Amino acid sequence: MIAPSSEVKAGQVVTRKFASEDAVIYRTQSGYVRAIRPYCPHLGAHLGYGGRVNGECIVCPFHGFSFAMDGSVSRPGIGYDGHLTKGLTTLPVKEVNGGIWAWHGRAGVQPLWDPPSVIGNSDRIHFIRSEIHSHPQELAENFVDLGHVINLHGYTQKEVELRFDDHKIELSVEIERAIPPFRAVNVKARATLHGIGMWHLQFFAPIRGVEINVIGSPRPIGPWRTELFIGASTNIEEESGKLLGILPKGAIRLMADIISWANLYGIARDLNADLPIWNSKRYSAPPRLAKGDGPIGPYRKWAHQFYSSELNQESRFRET
Hints:
Layout lengths: L2 E2 L8 E6 L2 E7 L5 E4 L15 E3 L2 E3 L6 E2 L5 E3 L14 E2 L1 E4 L2 E4 L23 E7 L3 H5 L5 H6 L3 E11 L2 E11 L5 E11 L3 E7 L5 E13 L2 E12 L1 H6 L5 H32 L15 H8 L5 H11 L1
Antiparallel strand pairs: 1-11, 2-3, 3-4, 4-9, 5-6, 6-7, 7-8, 10-11, 12-18, 13-14, 14-15, 15-16, 16-17, 17-18
């Protein structure tokens, strides 16, 4: 996820780091989102600094060349007779789950899958973010590192089911945690990794009709530098709202927002325990695994598919 949808309004141009390079995201006046590499093919101006949206096009601030949504030149600057033969470099992009998602494929590889829509009411999602000295693959490894869930976060593991499925990992878990001054709380959750760039967690609340979803996305911004987005959204069916009391629709929406922020608070508290470790640890390859670690080895083999063949060979050599 390169940015939350709410950060790119109609007619707005923003710049974000993506895989060590700048990416420019803009929204056309009719609401379409596009992501491009920033430099104008004419004389190299950065469209994130002074570039503007004109209708459905983005205009270079230097010489006024206008580029269509597919990156091609739609109109030359004032005083120019001909068109450029080369357009902007576009990034495959999709807007879903309250965020703008971009694909980075080495050597021009196009998306092998799309991020699925897992949150129906995505305009009610709330995000927090952290910048971390780590790699997206290692952050996603937390889902299968069952030993740290017990020792670092204080959960008692009760039941875990794990399934590898092509570019996805599906994890169902039942855990228990003491939350002072209350008694131990039983938590049932389902987590799905879509590659290493999208996480979806679904928590099952004790009240029927209350759906709690959490979206996570680690975006590489430089060598061993990652920006992590965590977003929460809660949907309460109207019938469930009535069970909670005779509540108007506005009150139900307010309650959903409160539940979402409460979940983000709990997630942020757990992240505060992870952050100093992520920021100071090193990546161990090969890992010296012990019984109770969880399926870290199978996870790393699964993650090989997301790298070019050259990187796969180098990584396999290191772990042999």
